[in-house]
Structures are given as C-alpha cells and as structure tokens.
Amino acid sequence: MYMTNLDFVYIATCNAGFAVKAFADAGARHSIGVKTGVPVLDAAALTFTRAFYTRLWEPGSKICECYESAVMNIRLEFNDAEADKFDILKSN
After folding, report:
1. Rounded to an integer, what is the distance from CA 40 to the centroid of its chain?
2. Domain assignment of residue 42, yes or no
C-alpha cells in the first residue's frame, strides 16, 4: 500500500473513477471525480469545480461539505442524474 499526505484530490475529467479509486487506495483522504462510464456535461463539471473551490476557501470548510455543496449546485442547475455522476471516496 502506498501512503500519501494528500488531504484531497479532485480529478476534473470524464471517466475518472479508476483514478479516484487509485488515489484513495494510495491514501489520499478524499478522492473526488466523475464516475467511470458516465460522460459529464462540460458546463456541469465547471459548475461543480467552481462551487467546490469557492466553498473550500471559506474559513472552517470541510472537504465533504464542499463536495456536498457542489453536488447540490449541480442538482439545482442541472438535474439529479447529472449530480449523481460525481463521486467521493474517503480513506480511513
């Protein structure tokens, strides 16, 4: 098993599921990206990224809360199906 000190990894590309899992397996505390086998709309990926990083810069922010906030933005601006394409894996 590999060890890393990464608090989070965000992989902003379609079909990132294999890389999300690889980073989680390597010890990244939070690994975020688009599930494998599901293309995501460019506009949805941009919305997710903007919402995630905007929330991340707020004092006291937590990675899981930033992720959930970004997913909620996708639900509101697009739909549930588009929001469900994003995934987060957490390592112990």
Report:
1. 12
2. yes
> Is the Cβ–Cβ distance between 29 and 4 less than 8 Å?
no
The pLDDT score that the predictor gives to residue 17 is 87
Integer Cα distance of 49 and 61 in angstroms = 15
Q: Which amino acid is at 7?
A: D
Number of domains making up the chain:
1
**4: number of CA atoms within 13 Å, CB side?**
16
**What is the pLDDT confidence band of residue 4, given thresholds at 50, 70 and 90?**
low
What is the value of pTM for the model shown? 0.89
Query: 28 CB contacts (<8 Å, ≥6 apart)?
Result: 4, 6, 7, 8, 9, 91
Q: Which domain does 19 fall in, by range?
A: 8-90
Task: Answer yes or no: is 1 within a domain.
Answer: no
Beginning with the edge strand found earlier in the chain, give each strand of the sheet holding 30-34 in spatial order.
8-11, 30-34, 86-90
pLDDT band at 26 (very low <50, low <70, confident <90, very high): confident
